[in-house]
Specification:
Layout lengths: L4 H13 L3 E3 L5 E2 L5 E2 L1 E3 L8 H18 L5 E5 L2 H13 L3 E4 L12 E2 L7 E9 L3 H12 L3 E10 L3 H9 L4 E6 H10 L5 H12 L9
Helix pairs in contact: 1-6, 2-3, 6-7
């Protein structure tokens, strides 16, 4: 679910402006999974731009206040969601924890860092949702501590069908500030891409992993 069409467009323009999201339809990026992708997203760049950082922080907080029951704790997902989650927790005056991608290999073998008391209501903050796998792993870790996950808010999602299915199976509501479809519309409007690129990007969105390159 997109929090707000207006916010989605504003966030998309900002991400394009600071090159937190790059579009290269004819010279695709290679993701860690080996998938060829015309888009690369690094929302950590937001942290270097105070005005955009402040806007994203405030809108994440507003999305939580409007879409979820009031949480007791904000949780960030390692690594991209940690800083943004901490900013949101500060904005809302709430405790903060973060969830590792894997159990700590030494010491207390923690998966969750910070103090999370059983029975607390938690909203998870992510910077980016692709398939939802790593994000929902964090949700499972919180639930394993006998806490209630009210939902997740994220800055951006590719909107893959598999992600929607995964969140539904996990019974976790996802609210995002922006979305791939809105992003490429804004990219075309602001002349970051051409019409032919827009069509290719739409095709890739429907069939991730496949991309046709010009000879």
């Amino acid at each position: 679910m997109i929090f707000s069409e207006k916010v989605a467009s504003e966030v998309a323009r900002s991400l394009l402006q600071i090159k937190a999201i790059k579009l290269q339809p004819t010279n695709p990026f290679t993701w860690a999974s080996g998938v060829k992708s015309p888009i690369y997203c690094d929302n950590r760049k937001i942290l270097s731009y105070p005005d955009i950082r402040s806007y994203v922080k405030s809108q994440l907080a507003v999305s939580i206040n409007e879409k979820f029951e009031k949480p007791d704790v904000i949780a960030g997902v390692a690594t991209g969601g940690i800083a943004h989650g901490a900013l949101v927790a500060e904005e809302m005056g709430l405790p903060f924890v973060y969830i590792r991608s894997n159990v700590k290999a030494h010491g207390l073998n923690n998966m969750i860092e910070g103090e999370l008391v059983q029975g607390k209501k938690v909203v998870v903050v992510e910077d980016l949702v692709s398939t939802g796998g790593s994000s929902l792993k964090a949700v499972d870790a919180i639930r394993a501590e006998n806490c209630q996950v009210l939902g997740m808010t994220a800055i951006f999602t590719y909107g893959f069908d598999i992600a929607k299915e995964n969140f539904e199976k996990s019974d976790c509501e996802l609210v995002t500030l922006s979305h791939y479809d809105i992003l490429i519309q804004e990219a075309l409007k602001e002349n970051y891409i051409e019409e032919k690129d827009f069509e290719l990007l739409q095709t890739w969105r429907k069939n991730p992993g496949w991309i046709k390159l010009e000879s």
